[in-house]
Design a protein that fits this description.
The chain is α/β, with parallel strands linked by helices and about 325 residues long. The protein contains eleven helices and 18 strands. The protein has helices at about 5-15, 60-70, 100-110, 130-140, 145-150, 155-160, 170-180, 205-220, 250-270, 295, 300-310, and strands spanning about 20, 35-40, 40-45, 70-75, 80, 85, 90-95, 95-100, 115-120, 120-125, 165, 185, 220-225, 235, 240-245, 270-275, 285, 290.
Length: about 325
């Protein structure tokens, strides 16, 4: 299986699971391969054959993007550390969940969440600490006895009862001895701490792009630069998130850009806009509002930007 086949497999799984998918792009160096939404679930996915290849990079940028649009990042791979990734196990690369497509299929199509996570030293699980503590006390089993059964220290049993993860083999021994279901399913998409924000630098942008984004900043918007995305930045305030692109001069390229941004805007359920150097014949393309640089420079209120976007959708 090559990378494009892997992406298609992931798309097929998500499609069968009722997810609405971003259009196929396959552009070299893109930050993501698929954005997928179903109800309140929004995933931004990067697929690679090897989880340790150079293709899995820009993790910080991916997390910044996901934080801005309230999405969950996910890596899908076949191999990690020169071994095939195991079905039912959640791995991690740069604090982003990583799994094989079979694990994703179990979750999406079978409704079977993973229960095992990989960490230095082996495979681990989370146990229901309340059930563990209650079963031990009801059966009048000492910490020392349970430690002997699990092949661990007395202190480890105490930590399990306080919520610490356990090695898979240990948890299975305790389940069998106590006759209780202790192992809990894992939610790989639990929201962690937002990526630490750095002051947004506009140095990476062209002169036109800097002019556009400086105008938006002056109106009180926060500019989140995006790396290797079809749009140049995310513009946001307390109420609005805008996928913001700066359009090329060539009409053909502009229409293609609008098509891509329109698709991503629909999936993420965020507003979008394309800003241009000079007047265009239409006020929108593919449903994406068009705003000219001079027009933006005359706006002195964010409410007027919102009205302009609503009027031109």
């Amino acid at each position: 299986m090559n990378r494009l086949q892997l992406i298609e497999k992931v798309r097929d799984i998500l499609s069968k699971g009722g997810f609405y998918l971003s259009q196929r792009q396959y552009q070299p160096g893109m930050l993501f391969d698929i954005i997928a939404r179903k109800d309140d679930k929004l995933f931004v996915i990067r697929a690679t054959i090897n989880a340790d290849s150079s293709r899995i990079n820009n993790a910080k940028e991916l997390k910044v993007l996901c934080d801005a649009i309230d999405a969950s990042p996910l890596y899908i791979s076949l191999i990690g550390g020169q071994k095939r990734l195991k079905q039912g196990v959640v791995y991690s690369r740069k604090n982003i969940p990583l799994m094989c497509p079979d694990t994703l299929e179990d979750m999406i199509l079978e409704g079977v969440p993973p229960c095992v996570f990989s960490a230095p030293g082996g495979f681990y699980v989370k146990m229901d600490s309340d059930i563990l503590k209650k079963a031990r006390k009801e059966k009048k089993i000492s910490l020392s006895k349970l430690a002997e059964i699990g092949g661990v220290s007395r202190k480890s049993i105490q930590k399990y009862e306080d919520g610490m993860g356990a090695e898979l083999e240990v948890a299975l021994k305790l389940e069998e001895f106590l006759g209780e279901d202790l192992i809990l399913p894992i939610n790989p998409f639990e929201k962690g701490e937002p990526e630490e924000e750095c002051p947004a630098s506009l140095d990476q942008y062209s002169k036109l792009e800097r002019t556009i984004f400086e105008s938006l900043k002056s109106l009180g918007y926060k500019i989140v630069p995006t790396c290797k995305c079809p749009f140049e930045a995310i513009t946001e305030d307390d109420d609005t998130v805008i996928l913001s692109g700066v359009g090329p001069e060539d009409n053909k390229d502009l229409k293609e850009k609008a098509k891509i941004v329109s698709n991503l805007s629909d999936i993420t359920e965020k507003d979008s806009a394309i800003f241009l150097q000079k007047r265009y014949t239409h006020r929108s393309i593919k449903g994406i509002p068009i705003i000219e640089k001079d027009e933006l420079s005359k706006i002195d209120d964010r409410e007027k930007v919102s009205e302009l976007l609503a009027d031109r959708k």
